[in-house]
Amino acid sequence: MTLAPTPTRPRPRQEAATGSYHELAAAVREAGLLERTPRFYVGLLTGLGVALAALLTALVVIGPSWWQLLVAAALGVVLTQVAFVSHEASHRQVLRTGPANDRLGRVLANAVVGISHSWWTTKHNRHHANPNRRGKDPDIERDTISFLPEDAAQQSGFMGALTRRQGWLFFPLLTLEGLNLHVVSIRSALASAPSRARTTELVLMAVRLVGYVALVVWQLPLGMAAAFLAVQLAVFGVYMGASFAPNHKGMAIIPAESRLDFLSKQVLTSRNISGGRWVTALMGGLDAQIEHHLFPSMPRPHLARARELVREHCARVGMPYTQTTLVESYRRVVEYLNEVGLQARDPFDCPMVARYRA
Questions:
Q1: pLDDT in tens, 93-130
Q2: Cα torsion for 21, 95, 84, 91, to the nearest 10°?
Q3: pLDDT for 190-246, tens place per residue?
Q4: Cα-atom radius of gyration of the chain, to the nearest Å?
């Protein structure tokens, strides 16, 4: 779905929507939903630390056994949960000051997960500023997957065949996303301008990568070690992708020249996932995507209450508020990607078939 461009001059309705956001923000602040929740994050990080230590101990104690693949899968899950907290730290959700959150985010992302914190933060901030906006949101730029019909139309040959089936192939391709995130992180860090922060980031990622791989290879035969790393990266990639994909894929696409107020820009392009506290824990708070985009610094424990306030506010001002189940969100993502993918060129298609596809 693509929204029609809006005139450059703001309309009274846009001004009213902007004013209504200030009203909503005041209600959220008054309810104390922007206050830090240190006990929650201390407990969460302690639990994740214990889980990581237990899994690394299991890797050493179990020794050469194919049961290690279960350890690898569990490690992929725990590292994704750590990545969620790093994401929250980059939004100033965890600690009270910006520098403290930045330090925590760097340690968790670079030294534990092995992902570039600076690359992720820069990319993610651009996404938050312009979600689903053509030419502005890096999350819908053309890659292996095409998220826009005009990008899919440029694909041909092998990539065209893949693009035409990209909805069905989306989740299988996510098994490679973990590896891709590590490669892109290293490339972006090496390509950035020399600085103390860049050096620190590269050192942390290098120590984490070399130390982790060395431990696995030291404990397991080469073939088993390769399988261990493959399973861990595959689970990490699928879990990360399956948590972020339902949030915006298949929602409104904003034309580059369109002007929208903040409330409309964030709500119309985002999708919430129902399911309660267990889904919130599973997705690291990303199930409340609308509230997260409206209030990026809001700690995870407050999102459930904020969801009630935002939903009531949207109903009062006539703003569509999208919420669905996790399974239904995946169905919509696959359907949308397949629809976009049909625009990919096939040199063996007859003109009539191509016309009906369009």
A1: 999 999 999 999 999 999 999 999 999 999 999 999 99
A2: 40
A3: 998 999 989 999 999 999 999 999 999 999 999 999 999 999 999 999 999 999 999
A4: 22
CB-based contacts of 53, cutoff 8 Å, min separation 6: none
* Residues 151, 142: Cα–Cα separation, whole Å: 6
Burial string for 294-309 (b: 16+ CB within 10 Å, else e) reads: bbbebbbbbbbebbeb
User: Containing H/E element for 10?
Assistant: none
Contacts for 221-229: CB closer than 8 Å, 24+ residues apart: 221/64, 224/64, 224/66, 224/68, 227/66, 227/69, 227/72, 228/68, 228/69, 228/71, 228/72, 229/72
In whole angstroms, give the CA distance from residue 238 to residue 235. Answer: 5
Q: For residue 52, how many other CB atoms are within 10 A of its CB?
A: 17
